[in-house]
Design a protein that fits this description.
Mean pLDDT: 93
Largest sheet: 4 strands, antiparallel
Order of helices and strands: EHEHHEE
Low-confidence stretches: none
Number of strands: 4
Number of domains: 1
Shape: globular
Helix content: 25-40%
Strand content: 25-35%
């Protein structure tokens, strides 16, 4: 994390997908279902090196909690603060995405 990082509350989702593009497509589709247009700059889709990538955003204890909660899913999706994260019922029922939780982290503003 850098000096330009600011504290934020991030929504963490999980699911099983064939690749990052499939995960982002599912996320964008679910966002559109609830009337929100989502851009790639509002999220980070993580399929490999999860510990290292999560450490960019969260303290080690939170990384461990997220990894434990993700369980058998192979993809972690971070949602940065946006209109979508303000919807408490996201993701909707029947979604291929699962809400892992909301965690305090830091987001680089560069």
């Amino acid at each position: 994390m850098t000096d330009t990082a600011v504290p934020v509350l991030m929504t963490v989702l999980a699911g099983t997908f064939t690749n990052q593009a499939a995960a982002f497509y599912a996320l964008r589709t679910e966002a559109e279902r609830v009337g929100v247009e989502l851009g790639p700059e509002q999220t980070d889709v993580i399929r490999e090196a999860a510990s290292v990538r999560l450490a960019h955003y969260f303290r080690p204890a939170i990384v461990a909690r997220i990894e434990e909660a993700v369980a058998e899913d192979d993809t972690i999706i971070l949602l940065f603060p946006s209109r979508l994260t303000a919807i408490p019922s996201f993701p909707p029922e029947g979604s291929s995405l699962r809400l892992v939780g909301r965690f305090a982290g830091r987001l680089d503003q560069n």
